[in-house]
Structure formats: C-alpha cells, structure tokens
Design a protein that fits this description.
This protein is α/β, with parallel strands linked by helices and 497 residues long. The chain is built from 16 helices and 21 strands. Strands 14-17-18-13-12-19-20 form a seven-stranded mixed sheet, with helices on both faces. The longest helix is centred in the first third of the chain and has 22 residues, at 112-133. The protein starts with 7 loop residues before the first helix and ends with a strand.
Length: 497
C-alpha cells in the first residue's frame, strides 16, 4: 500500500459519512433520535451527526445478538466456514482502505500514513489471522481411566460486549471482535464517542463479508448512556474493554453488580524505557525512544513515557533525543509526509498542557516543546515535549499523560533502575538497552510488565499477547491466548461400559 500518491484533501471532500448505529444488520438512528456532533481535531470541521445510543438501543442490540447466538446462525457454522467469512472480511478492509484510513485520520487526528500504511492493514491482518487460526485449534481428551471418556472443549461464551478507545479505533476494535467472532460469539461493539466512524463502517463490511445480521452490532454513544447499560446488561456474557484504568475499575464493578459477566480490561500504562551505560548504539536507542513516545501523538497506552538513563551517558543520549525531535513536528495529518498529527480533541490537548504545566511547577527542566502548535488551523496540536531532571514522584512521571511528553529520569545502579521502573501502579510494557546478555535476561525477569523489549521498543506481532500487570488490567489481546477470553471451558464426562 506504499506510494499511494492520493490527494487526501480532495478525497475528503467526496467522503460520505453515515453516523447511524448498526443494529441487526441495519443502519438506524437512535430510538429517541439523539445525536452528537462529530468534529475533526485536524481543523475543527464538523464531520457528521452520530447516533447517540441510549439504554433502549443497547437493549435492542443485545436482543439481536442474543437471538442470533441462540439460533446458531453463526455459532453453528463449521469453523472452516467462519474462517472463510473472516478472511473475506479482512479482504474488504483492504479493498476499502482509502475510505477507512481517511475516516480514521479525520476522526482522531493521526497522520494519514499511519492510518493507511499501519492501522488499516494491521486490522485486516488481525481478522485474517484469527480466521486462519480457528480451524487449526483442537480440543482435548483427558487422561482418565479406560472406562471413561472425558472431553475438554471450548464453546463460545455467548453475547460479547466490547468497548474500545479512541486512539486506535479500528485496530482496537479488530483486536476484540476478531477472536470473539471467530469463536462463534455474537458481538455488540461500542466505539468511543471521540472516534466512532470506522467502527460503524466495520458493521457494514462485516455484513457484506457474510457475517449474518444480528451477529455484529455497533452502538455509538457516550459512556454513561451506552457503555454503562452494555456493561450492566444481564444478557451480556462477557465485556471486553480497552481504556483508562479508572473506567476499567468501574467496568469490573459493573460486571460484578450485574450477572458476574467475564470482564477483560486492557488498561493504561506508564512504561519505563531503561538505557544502561553499556548500550553500544545510542543512536538506535534515541531513535526508537523518540519514535515510540511521539508516534500517534503520544496517545498510546504502552508509550515509553519514562526514559530511565544511566547517569554517565545521560547527556549524550539526551542530545541525541533532542536531535530526533525535528522528525516529529506537528503538521497536516492529510499530508503523507507528516509523522505527528493532532490530539483527539480540545479536552485532551488541554489536559496534556495541564500536565506540562505541573512538570514545570514541580521542578522538572523543560528541554523542548511544551506548547500548543498550529493553533491557527483550528486543530489541537502540541509540540513534542521533553523534560529532564524528573523524579519518579512528580506527577508527569506517575500519571498517564496520553500525549507527546517524555520524562527523563537518571539512575546510577541497576538495582535503582529496576526499583524506579517498577515503582508505578501500571505494568503494561517496559524496555531495556544493554549489551550484557545476562543483565538483559535478569532485569527483564524483574520488570513487572506484560511486555519487555530488549534493545528495541514497540515491536510486536499478532502471534504474541498484548496486555499488562497490576493496574494495567487483566486484558490480553492478540495471539491464540485471546481465544480463551471469549470461550467457556466445558468438561463432558462419558462413562463407558
């Protein structure tokens, strides 16, 4: 999908956006007619009026999903048939990649190259990979006595509610719906009200691919109006959520207060990126560190926002980090050469600026950025920001900022680095840079994080799980392990004569 030479501005002028919900295989307005306005963070332009779903709409979507599950129009199909449909679903994402990428960029502000070259192909790959996997996983026979046949099988859990965030709208949706659908469940997806447009289009493409009506439903709306009724619904068997730790805690409570539905929450992070003095390639470490914190405007839960540097090399590494900033200056997201776009909305920009102000007030040294950029466009941009002389007790080091803000923390010993790295409520990701293979293994073992990168950052693959420790939640997306979240484990005990 490289060398596209697409005039994205011209393409945007011809884009038709349908903001209605997708329930039971049909586009429809909210039952009460409620809508909310969807604006682009690029320049403040209005994109669409989107259905603001309420409890009545959630009830309808869940009822459609339950009916579809009970009559087995999807769950009853052979795995190889579901595989074929999911592969067709993936193909349709690629066939409609221009539209989907444009919706994504207009809706949440990321560079069009990231949407078109990254998120849409990765989403299609997720659908295709889980589709290909489903007829290659086997159930078990327990090693009982010869007079017993004990079968251990996986069955779909039923109706799955999914609530996804605004930072990677289509990709996070596909990480959830692919394993849920391929295992035979029915799904009700609530996208973030900040970026609902690609999710709504996914509903239509799923139907076109051959997923029966009612199996996959999309209900845009606000958390209290749509998310809460979905999490509290007595006929939803599983809720899968990606978002903030604060909301994740509420999801867990609602799951318990309702029907004890399974609740899988993949939550926030404050990931440490540790560079030891024996790192032989500071250029690569600097480039990877900058790319990972400033990619997607810093709006990534696993962003390495805490850069822990051994004191003897700190000045050298900081100099190289600052030199990288020229690659990540905010620019027009519809220009394919842009590497950093707009934050998702004014509220997020304001929140990030408040964190920057707190860093200054608490004594951190601002080395670069720290201000709004491109204000004349009407959009919401912040320059890449770097703080030095940060301590782990400062707010900018303790709380998830979700913006292009890097905090540099010096350390003197390996033990001190591990202590600082683990001194956080989160445990999503971490990294360390060293040439010592023993140190690499031993430090990685001690870092309390779901993913530990060694001499790299942000590299991943659909074959490995993604999720964290501690208050980064219990969610695990990607890999065959994700199938476990959306299935029940059944034992069938047969007494033989």
């Amino acid at each position: 999908m490289a060398n596209t030479k697409i005039d994205w501005h011209a393409r945007a002028k011809t884009l038709k956006i349908d903001g209605r919900a997708f329930i039971g295989g049909v586009r429809m307005p909210a039952a009460g007619g409620q809508t909310f306005e969807c604006f682009s963070p690029i320049d403040g332009r209005k994109l669409a009026d989107v259905a603001s779903c309420q409890e009545v709409d959630i009830n309808l979507a869940v009822a459609c999903a339950r009916t579809a599950f009970n009559d087995r129009r999807w769950a009853g199909l052979p795995p190889k048939t579901r595989k074929q449909v999911m592969i067709r679903f993936a193909d349709l994402l690629i066939e409609n990649a221009e539209e989907l990428a444009l919706l994504e960029t207009l809706d949440m502000g990321k560079p069009i190259s990231a949407s078109f070259e990254g998120d849409v192909p990765a989403s299609a790959n997720t659908l295709r990979w889980f589709g290909e996997a489903i007829d290659k996983v086997y159930d078990e026979i327990a090693p009982t006595t010869e007079s017993v046949l004990a079968m251990i099988t996986r069955e779909p859990v039923g109706v799955v509610g999914t609530i996804v965030p605004w930072n990677y709208p289509i990709l996070m949706a596909c990480w959830k719906i692919a394993p849920a659908l391929v295992t035979g469940n029915s799904v009700v997806l609530k996208p973030s009200e900040k970026s609902p447009l690609t999710a709504l289009r996914l509903g239509e493409l799923a139907l076109e691919a051959g997923i029966p009506a009612g199996v996959f439903n999309v209900v845009p709306g606000f958390g209290p109006d749509a998310g809460t009724p979905l999490a509290m619904h007595m006929d939803v068997d599983c809720i899968a959520f990606t978002g903030s730790t604060g909301v994740g805690k509420k999801i867990q409570i609602m799951a318990g207060q309702s029907n004890l539905k399974r609740a899988w929450c993949e939550l926030g992070g404050k990931s440490p990126n540790i560079v030891f003095a024996d790192c032989k390639d500071l250029d690569t470490a600097a480039a990877a560190s900058a790319a990972s914190i400033f990619y997607n405007q810093g709006e990534s839960c696993n962003a390495p926002s805490r850069l822990l540097v051994e004191r003897s090399i700190k000045d050298a590494l900081v100099k190289k980090i600052l030199a990288e900033l020229k690659k990540y200056q905010p620019a027009d997201p519809l220009d394919e050469s842009t590497t950093m776009g707009a934050l998702v909305d004014c509220g997020q920009m304001t929140n990030v600026l408040k964190y920057i102000a707190s860093g200054k007030a608490q004594g951190a040294k601002l080395l670069a950025g720290g201000e709004q950029a491109r204000a004349e466009t009407g959009g919401f941009y912040i320059s890449p920001t770097v703080f030095d002389e940060v301590t782990n007790e400062m707010t900018i080091a303790a709380e998830e900022i979700f913006g292009p803000v890097l905090s540099i923390i010096a350390f003197d010993t390996e033990e001190e680095a591990i202590k600082i790295a683990n001194d956080t409520q989160y445990g999503l990701a971490a990294a360390l840079w060293t040439q010592d293979i023993s140190r690499a293994h031993l430090v990685a073992q001690r870092l309390r994080a779901g993913t530990v990168h060694i001499n790299s950052y942000d590299e991943d693959d659909i074959t490995v799980p993604f999720g964290g420790y501690k208050q980064s939640g219990n969610g695990r997306d990607k890999s065959l392990h994700a199938l476990e979240k959306y299935t029940e484990l059944k034992t069938t005990w047969i007494k033989l004569k």
